[in-house]
Amino acid sequence: MDTILSVSGVSKTYGSGTTALHSVDLDIAKGEIFALLGPNGAGKTTLISIICGIVTPSTGTVTVMGHDAINEFRAARRLVGLVPQELSVDMFETVLATVKFSRRLFGRSGHDAYIEEVLRDLSLWDKRDARIMELSGGMKRRVLIAKALSHEPDILFLDEPTAGVDVSLRRDMWKLIHRLRDKGTTIILTTHYIEEAEEMADRVGVIDKGKLILVERKAELMKRLGKRQMLISLQEPMGTIPPELEEWHLELEDEGKKLLYIFDATSERTGIPSLLRKLAELGIGFKDLETSKSSLEDIFVDLVAQGKAEGVAA
Ligand SMILES: Nc1ncnc2c1ncn2[C@@H]1O[C@H](COP(=O)(O)OP(=O)(O)OP(=O)(O)O)[C@@H](O)[C@H]1O
């Protein structure tokens, strides 16, 4: 892996006593889209803020293309663009002036052709002379991205890029992020939306209560943990599950009209043929069988529940 960013043993305890991160290790590969997934308060923003040098870690190190994020703050920070959750711009300023100002903050000036390219990519070029206050919510978000890209960073962080955004705008944002990656930018995004990670990411990290409980390629994650479910629609509703069916750990759904069987599609024995034989033996008729794949959401819920059971909680 061609590592562009390395986080090693990073912990953070705020002055209030809250420990937001517990010894996080993470390497990001050049050119990947990495989604950091976690519930509210899991520590996502804290981790991003540490990487961007906004928050100082209590322990551990962060290096961006070999530059230490604390000791070589300027060199490291220059390589990173941050799109924050909240709008942080002067509402009376124009789009073009806002983006140019951000570029100058990083000691870069000129290169108007680059700024024009960024604004065109974000469909903001026609709005370059509009004041921020005149823009729609979606456009304002794109201005935040333009600002973050203004100094030509190698890595772009997006903190909840689509929070509170409607479905079509969310899809536009996904397309845009893919285009940025195709141009060579490494993308790290935080999200609550499993759908977003599922749609976009090459790799997914799951963070819960300050611990990175899993980092894995999305495809492998879904294969490894992907369970399938089979829903059996019964001819006659069932009050309770007969003890003869105990070994399949079935659940009754839809007021006893359906039986739910969760199985591992990757295992040699799914248990389906024997279950169907047993149903026939017991004279339990069914009208329909439906199988479906579990989503990343099911996996995530399982993982967080598992973490709790194993005492991952701080
Ligand atoms: N400046 C701060 N001072 C004290 N505690 C903080 C500070 N910032 C965050 N925290 C605490 O650290 C924990 C992690 O917060 P963080 O904002 O990193 O989580 P998050 O995963 O980004 O959450 P969300 O998805 O809600 O944005 C929380 O318990 C939060 O209350």
TrEMBL record:
InterPro entries, per database record: AAA+_ATPase, ABC_transporter-like_ATP-bd, ABC_transporter-like_CS, ABC_transporter_ATP-binding, P-loop_NTPase
Chain segments annotated as coiled-coil in the UniProt record: none
Key words of the record: ATP-binding, Nucleotide-binding, Transport
Domain ABC transporter positions: 5-234
Molecular function terms, GO-annotated: ATP binding; ATP hydrolysis activity
Pfam families: ABC_tran
CDD domains, alphabetized: ABC_DR_subfamily_A
UniProt keyword Ribosomal protein, yes or no: no
Matches recorded under SMART domains: AAA
Highest taxon in the source lineage: Bacteria
Stored Gene3D superfamilies: P-loop containing nucleotide triphosphate hydrolases
Protein name: ABC transporter ATP-binding protein
The organism of origin for this protein: Sphingomonas alpina
Lineage, uppermost ranks: Bacteria, Pseudomonadati, Pseudomonadota, Alphaproteobacteria, Sphingomonadales
